[in-house]
Amino acid sequence: MPSSGVPPMPPSSNVPTTVTPSSGATVNSLEAEEISRRLKKSLSETLTRFYPFAGRINGCLVDCNDDGVDYIEARVNCVLRYILKSPDGDFLREFLPIQKDSNEAGTGRLLLVKVTFFECGGMAIGVSISHKITDAHTLSKLVNTWAALTRGSSEAAVFPEFGCAASFLPPSKDFNFTMPAMKLKHEKAVMRRFVFDAPKISMLKARAASASVPQPTRVEAVVALIWKTAMTSSPLPLPSVLRQVVNLRKRLNPPLPDNAVGYLLSYFTIKSPENSEAELQGLVKRLRDGIGEFSENYVKKLQGSDAISTIFEAAKEVGNLSGRDDIKFYNSLSWCRFCVYEADFGWGKPIWVSLAGEAPGPDIFVLLDARDGGIEAWVSLKEEEMGSFQCNEELLAFASMDPCVHC
């Protein structure tokens, strides 16, 4: 498993985690070497544009020292179809360049890549990136730019815009405070993948619609169903709070450009109804009201003179809520509409883009686009709660658990 550093191209150069399709033929050493050479060359060109990722974290700063990123190459003696037949979240960790619980995970490197070649000619590309300076939206732009440059399509590559946060986040005279942290419960959790195909989502949206929200979004309908099922799967009838992460780029006024890079996320929280048998329509309405209030109140404060205190108070509230034992605190993140299936490196668009790794803790939902227009939801719960969750009849009327990935 060779490893090498990939530096950025010189600034003057203008040279123009993802599973790619199988070519149907066994990949030999020379083919893999040539593919890897092309990937490293285009990654170097990508780092010329996304230059902070070739640097190192130094305290609260990023040292843009052009030290490069880690590139790991691996070859496995099995075919890709075997992996896709029965996807396993824990096994998928093997395709990541680093494990989150390793000694190297907390170092100053910002981007790591692992390319795995299969006997059949298929390939898996695993990417790990630091959340200290970036988010999933930025990661999708970086990967799609890398893919475009690999296939020789420089016009499709993105020139990122840095420093956009400065347009709404004024410099503070005093950063001598500690941001309150959300308290993830470090309890053993089980993560399962639930796939909502496009026709089932249409049916779910119809069931979730009401006079208050006549046209729920895909994400609203799926999150509401998962939240409802999780609440009914909990052995204790506790009230719950859902924290929904929001991409700020389109919420600000004026909106930030789509190629704005950085950690440009925020969130809002909503409480469950008093009745533990919360109906789907009511939860969708709470989600819609939550984003409306977030856009009307929080975003305006965020673009005002009290931006720092606004962020601090919101983080303090979430920190307090996540540490309480008398409520169930759920976290929901959506990676939908990030165009992850557009990352064509020159060998075809991905047949599957997914998460990998163990569950970071219980009570977490992560949504990604599926290839057919549906949604893949990775749900992390305590083992005893997952046993009830994965057997819920209403959930299974719209979702399939851990289905195979069709090539």
Fold and architecture overview:
With 407 residues, the chain is α+β, with helices and mostly antiparallel strands. It folds into 2 domains: 3-160, Chloramphenicol Acetyltransferase (2-Layer Sandwich); 189-401, Chloramphenicol Acetyltransferase, CATH 3.30.559.10. It has 10 helices and 15 strands. The strands form 3 sheets. The chain has a 7-stranded mixed sheet, with helices on both faces. The chain has a 6-stranded mixed sheet with strand order 1-5-6-7-2-12, with helices on one face. Helix 5 packs across helix 6 and helix 6 crosses helix 9. It is globular and about 65 Å long.
What's this entry about, in short?
Helix content is 30%, strand content 20%. It is an alpha+beta fold and 407 residues long.
Keyword list:
407 residues; alpha+beta; Chloramphenicol Acetyltransferase; 2 domains; six-stranded mixed sheet
Write the layout of secondary structure elements.
Blueprint: E1 3-6, E2 18-20, H1 29-49, E3 56-58, E4 61-63, E5 69-75, H2 80-85, H3 89-92, E6 111-117, E7 123-129, H4 136-150, E8 189-196, H5 198-208, H6 218-233, E9 240-247, E10 265-271, H7 280-302, H8 307-322, E11 328-334, E12 352-353, E13 364-369, E14 375-382, H9 383-389, H10 393-396, E15 400-401
Parallel strand pairs: 5-6, 9-11, 11-13
Antiparallel strand pairs: 1-5, 2-7, 2-12, 3-4, 6-7, 8-14, 8-15, 9-10, 13-14
Helix pairs in contact: 1-4, 5-6, 6-7, 6-9
Family: Belongs to the plant acyltransferase family.
Region (Disordered): 1-27
Pfam families: Transferase
